C-alpha cells in the first residue's frame, strides 16, 4: 500500500497525541515509577508475622522524704499531718510498655528492639488473631538495639525472612507494620529517604531513613521491601512532638542478620576486634599525610599485643581497605570489623609515609572491658633545651615538668608549655601540658626534633605538618599549618 504525505496540521496532532500518551503512562498508578496500585495483598500476607510486645517492670519509687518538724501547737501541725497522711505509700510499683516485633522462625523466634524489652520482668507477645504467648529472652545487643525472644507456640507460626538491605536504593517503596500507640496491626507506606545514616546512637550506626510513618510503639517492628522481605528493624524517629514527621530510622538487615545469628548461637554477640583507636581523616590531615583526598581511617593508637600490633599496623597509618572493602570514611571501619568473624585472617591495605602497603591481621574477640592502652615507644632522653615552633613553646620532659603539668611517667615526647592564642595549634585544641609524640610520623624526643620535622615538611612543599599529640591518656593527630 502506498503511503500518502501528511499535512503540517496532521504532523502536529500526532506529536501532541504521543506526548499525552507518554504523560499518562508516567502518571498512571504503578507505571514507570514502580508504585503499586495497592499494598493490601502485601499487608494481608505479612501482618500475621508481625507481633505486639507488652512488657511489665517493677520499679521502686523514690522516698518522699521526712515530714517537716513543727513545734507542738503550731497552727500548721494539723494541716501538714492531714496532707502527708493522705499521700499514698511509695512502695514498689509496676509499669508497662508496648512495642513491636516480628517472627523469623515458625518455631517461635521473634526479633525486636533491645529498648522495648530492656529490664522487663515479664514479656508477652500478642498476635493479630488474638493469640497471646509468654516470651523468654534469648539475648540482646544494646549496641545495635536488637533483642531476640523465644516463644513456645502450639503450632508453627507465620514468619517472614530477611532481605538484602544493601540492594535497596533511595526512592524504593517500603512498608512498615507495627504497634504505634498500642494500635496493633497498623500499616504505613513510604520510600527510603536515605541510607547509611549516622544518628550518633552507637558505634555501628548505618541506618535506613524512611518517610513511612513510624511512631512510638513501632519500635522493633519490620520495614519491608516490595518483595515482602525484612530490610530493616524500625528503631528511632526524629520528632519534636513525639509523633511521626516523616523522619524514621531502621537498623538495616545486613547488620541485623549477623547479630541475630550470633544471638541464636551464643546468646550474645561475638564481634571481631582489631585493637586500634581511630580518627577521621580531615582535608588538613590528608594534606599532611600526603593523601590526594580525605579517605580511610587514621590510626591514632595501637593496643599493645593486639591483632593490629601483631599484624604490623602502627599509629599514623591510614587504613584504606579492610578485607577487600574500601574505607570511605572512619565510621565504616568499626562496622566492618564487627561484622567479620573472629579469628579470620584479613588483608588490610594501609597508607604509610606516602605509599600503600598490605598487612595481614588475625582478628581477635572484642572484649568490652579492654582498656585499649597504647603501646610504649622508646625514645632517647631529652636534653634540657627549650624552643618554639608553630606558635608553641616546647621543653623536654623532665621529672619536674612531669610533676608540674601532671604528665604520666610513661609518656614520651616533647612537652608543650605555652601556646599562642592566635596560632593554628590553639585553634586545633593543643594546650599547655600536652605532649608532642610525633612530627610528620617520626618520633620526637627534643624541641629540636620538632623544629627539624617542621622544617623537613616545609622543604617538601607541604602546607601543613602532621603532629601526634598526647593529652592525658588520649592520643590524636592534628594538622598544623606551617608558617613562614
TrEMBL record:
Record's keyword terms, sorted: Hydrolase, Periplasm, Protease, Repeat, Serine protease, Signal, Stress response
PROSITE patterns per the UniProt record, alphabetical: PDZ (PS50106)
Matching InterPro entries: PDZ, PDZ_6, PDZ_sf, Pept_S1C_Do, Peptidase_S1_PA, Peptidase_S1C
The keyword NAD appears for this protein: no
EC number from the UniProt entry: 3.4.21.107
Higher taxonomy: Bacteria, Pseudomonadati, Pseudomonadota, Alphaproteobacteria, Rhodobacterales
GO CC field: periplasmic space
SUPFAM superfamilies in the record: PDZ domain-like (SSF50156), Trypsin-like serine proteases (SSF50494)
Catalytic site: 115 (charge relay system), 145 (charge relay system), 219 (charge relay system)
UniProt-recorded name of the protein: Probable periplasmic serine endoprotease DegP-like
GO molecular function, one term: serine-type endopeptidase activity
SMART domains associated with the record: PDZ
Location of the PDZ domain: 263-354, 394-472
Localisation per UniProt entry: Periplasm
Amino acid at each position: 500500500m502506498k503511503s500518502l504525505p501528511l499535512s503540517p496540521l496532521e504532523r502536529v496532532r500526532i506529536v501532541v497525541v504521543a506526548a499525552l500518551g507518554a504523560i499518562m503512562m508516567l502518571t498512571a498508578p504503578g507505571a514507570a515509577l514502580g508504585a503499586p496500585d495497592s499494598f493490601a495483598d502485601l499487608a494481608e500476607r505479612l501482618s500475621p508475622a508481625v507481633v505486639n510486645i507488652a512488657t511489665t517492670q517493677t520499679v521502686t519509687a523514690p522516698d518522699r522524704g521526712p515530714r517537716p518538724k513543727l513545734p507542738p501547737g503550731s497552727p500548721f501541725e494539723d494541716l501538714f499531718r492531714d496532707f502527708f497522711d493522705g499521700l499514698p505509700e511509695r512502695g514498689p510499683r509496676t509499669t508497662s510498655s508496648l512495642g513491636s516485633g516480628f517472627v523469623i522462625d515458625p518455631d517461635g523466634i521473634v526479633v525486636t528492639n533491645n529498648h522495648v524489652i530492656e529490664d522487663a520482668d515479664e514479656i508477652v507477645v500478642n498476635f493479630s488473631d488474638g493469640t497471646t504467648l509468654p516470651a523468654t529472652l534469648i539475648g540482646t545487643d544494646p549496641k545495635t538495639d536488637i533483642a531476640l525472644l523465644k516463644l513456645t507456640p502450639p503450632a508453627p507460626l507465620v514468619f517472614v525472612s530477611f532481605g538484602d538491605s544493601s540492594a535497596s536504593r533511595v526512592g524504593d517503596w517500603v512498608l512498615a507494620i507495627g504497634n504505634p500507640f498500642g494500635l496493633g496491626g497498623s500499616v504505613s507506606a513510604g520510600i527510603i529517604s536515605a541510607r547509611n545514616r549516622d544518628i550518633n546512637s552507637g558505634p555501628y550506626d548505618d541506618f535506613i531513613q524512611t518517610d513511612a510513618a513510624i511512631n512510638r510503639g513501632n519500635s522493633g517492628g519490620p520495614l519491608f521491601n516490595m518483595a515482602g522481605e525484612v530490610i530493616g528493624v524500625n528503631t528511632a524517629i526524629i520528632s519534636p512532638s513525639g509523633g511521626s514527621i516523616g523522619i524514621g530510622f531502621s537498623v538495616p538487615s545486613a547488620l541485623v542478620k549477623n547479630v541475630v545469628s550470633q544471638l541464636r548461637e551464643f546468646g550474645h554477640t561475638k564481634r571481631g576486634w582489631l585493637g586500634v583507636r581511630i580518627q577521621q581523616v580531615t582535608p588538613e590531615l590528608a594534606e599532611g599525610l600526603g593523601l590526594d583526598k580525605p579517605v580511610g581511617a587514621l590510626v591514632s593508637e595501637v593496643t599493645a599485643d593486639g591483632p593490629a600490633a601483631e599484624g604490623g599496623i602502627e599509629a599514623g597509618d591510614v587504613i584504606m581497605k579492610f578485607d577487600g572493602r574500601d574505607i570511605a570514611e572512619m565510621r565504616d571501619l568499626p562496622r566492618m570489623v564487627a561484622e567479620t568473624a573472629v579469628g579470620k585472617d584479613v588483608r588490610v591495605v594501609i597508607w604509610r609515609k606516602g605509599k600503600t602497603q598490605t598487612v595481614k591481621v588475625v582478628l581477635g574477640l572484642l572484649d568490652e572491658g579492654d582498656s585499649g592502652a597504647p603501646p610504649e615507644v622508646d625514645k632517647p632522653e631529652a636534653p634540657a633545651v627549650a624552643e618554639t615552633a608553630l606558635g608553641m613553646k616546647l621543653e623536654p620532659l623532665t621529672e619536674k615538668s612531669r610533676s608540674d603539668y601532671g604528665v604520666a611517667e610513661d609518656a614520651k615526647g616533647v612537652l608543650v608549655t605555652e601556646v599562642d592564642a592566635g596560632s593554628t595549634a590553639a585553634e586545633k585544641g593543643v594546650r599547655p601540658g600536652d605532649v608532642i609524640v610525633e612530627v610528620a610520623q617520626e618520633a620526637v624526643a627534643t624541641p629540636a626534633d620538632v623544629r627539624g620535622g617542621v622544617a623537613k615538611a616545609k622543604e617538601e612543599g607541604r602546607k601543613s605538618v602532621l603532629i601526634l599529640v598526647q593529652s592525658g591518656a588520649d592520643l590524636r593527630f592534628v594538622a598544623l599549618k606551617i608558617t613562614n
